[in-house]
Amino acid sequence: MVFYRSVSLLSKLRNRAVQQPSLSNSVRWLQIQTSSNLDLRAQLKELIPEQQERLKKIKSEYGKVQLGNITVDMVLGGMRGMTGLLWETSLLDPDEGIRFRGLSIPECQKVLPAAKPGGEPLPEGLLWLLLTGKVPTTEQVNALSKELCTRAIILDHVYKTINALPITAHPMTQFTTGVMALQVQSEFAKAYENGIHKSKYWEPTFEDSLSLIAQLPAVAAYIYRRIYKNGEVVSTDDSLDYGANFAHMLGFDSPAMQELMRLYVTIHTDHEGGNVSAHTGHLVASALSDPYLSFAAALNGLAGPLHGLANQEVLLWIKSVVDECAENITNDQLKDYVWKTLNSGKVSKLYEVVPPILTELGKLIWDRALGLPLERPKSVTMEWLEKHCNKSKSA
């Protein structure tokens, strides 16, 4: 169901894109820069110094500029509406939805390399875009795809750790456990223990992030096959790209499913920084926890009923509709069932839930490169709020 909603979303975005000005006439076209360098790490090594200087300039010239007023409602409402995070890789546009480094989904579909002419963009291309702010060439994407294949090695202890859990354990519990089992190979943890200078933090963070991104599909597919396919594991196919290989390991090899997985992974790679999983990963990483620890924490946030687990609740709700009303349900029957759900006190998220982020690890690399500080928002008590408000009223 989530996959089909994604396709529906993209169909609408395509229709909107037809009405938009040509991409070549857009300011965002400036982001499409060519480079012969096929090494993503080398690209970052060139970009990081200039971005570090950019951040210093912003601090020195605009550090005292106010971004808005904080109200009591914001404090009591879980910081909703507060501007409090630097998140370069994506931004939610009120009219056009998510933008990755300034590019909308239809624009990404136009300019990112695809596995076939006119096909859906490859997730590796969006990863390159998120990290560098530049649209990659086909050669760069192919090189990154091959590098991810070389990093996608899962040691036996990871599977043994997952297998120690009962098969009835929730998939997210098993997924987080698998990520934590991978953590023993963290290059950042080793480098920090050996006294690496903070100006170099981004380098082992890059290594961990790319390795984890490479390993996640195999771990996720293993858990899926363990729970739903009697543990019959499908081996990886190194000839396939990231999205197609994930579909293959899940057990789906049709070209249509491969294209759908490329699309699905691409459009859900990042979703601003304020959602629970993104903010959790960002917060934990700000304490210099390595990418494995940070991503595992993000997954635990994602598993909450009001975040990623809401997708599961939607599917269960849809199943309950089919069980009670059959598949050929009429509009009136569906309307009655929705009211029944709402009147029972349960909140239907059918048209609100957006599939969660699969990976936000590239953001951690930039956190380390820019030396962003430990996140520690100031909290206050109700007594403090009452005194502050009364003081403001009498002033």
Write the layout of secondary structure elements.
Layout: H1 2-19, H2 40-62, H3 72-76, E1 90-93, E2 97-100, E3 103-104, H4 105-111, H5 123-132, H6 138-151, H7 156-163, H8 171-182, H9 187-193, H10 202-228, H11 242-250, H12 255-267, H13 276-285, H14 291-302, H15 309-325, H16 331-343, H17 361-370, H18 382-394
Antiparallel strand pairs: 1-2, 2-3
Helix pairs in contact: 5-12, 6-10, 7-8, 8-10, 8-14, 9-10, 10-11, 10-17, 11-12, 13-14
InterPro entries: Citrate_synth-like_lrg_a-sub, Citrate_synthase, Citrate_synthase_sf
GO molecular function: acyltransferase activity, acyl groups converted into alkyl on transfer
Family: Belongs to the citrate synthase family.
Can you walk through the features of this model?
The structure is a single chain. The protein has 395 residues and is mainly alpha-helical. Helix content is 58%, strand content 3%. It contains 18 helices and three strands. Helix 5 (123-132) packs parallel to helix 12. It is globular. The relative contact order is 0.12. InterPro entries: Citrate_synth-like_lrg_a-sub, Citrate_synthase, Citrate_synthase_sf. This is Citrate synthase.
